[in-house]
């Protein structure tokens, strides 16, 4: 862990800060002088590149509870925690279900949140914020997304439930549903991603929503509102649309 002395008003902790949306969030917050940014990631080389601009860097694997505990041990008060880190892999053959892949994604995207919350929530100040970066994939079921979708749906429930229990602690919870965002993860996708936006644009929208203390963010709306509309249709109709798409 590296530490940099900065005089500032707010401390922000970001997981998955070395790439994609997390890196874009780090870049925006760290250039604003008003924030002390704690950058968390599992890639030592990439994290080292952020050390000059970060208040602290924390190196840990999401699936290593002891690692998380050790790296976050000497962090005191936090104003905003942004739980952004995660992985995306697909079930390519549902009939021959890949249980190990499913378990890995659930562990990385969902189970790890329990340890992160255990070691960050007690440090969030009264009036602080907790931000979950989920996915618009939870609005509607998609083919091959059994593992990723299930993990993010679990995150949604966790965020919405915590919002109720944290009212008495005066801690706001924001749930974020991004659409397709260009990141190293989505670069691996082999299908069309409509209304794709940059990580920088996604970060700006998240920062704006956090500043307004919104409970729920979804973007770009031309995609998410379309998905919400489709979710109101009879499931048989949506399945027919998906089946037709898979044949093209």
UniProtKB/TrEMBL annotation:
Keywords: Oxidoreductase. It holds the Pfam family adh_short. It comes from the Bacteria. This is SDR family NAD(P)-dependent oxidoreductase. It comes from Colwellia maritima. Belongs to the short-chain dehydrogenases/reductases (SDR) family.
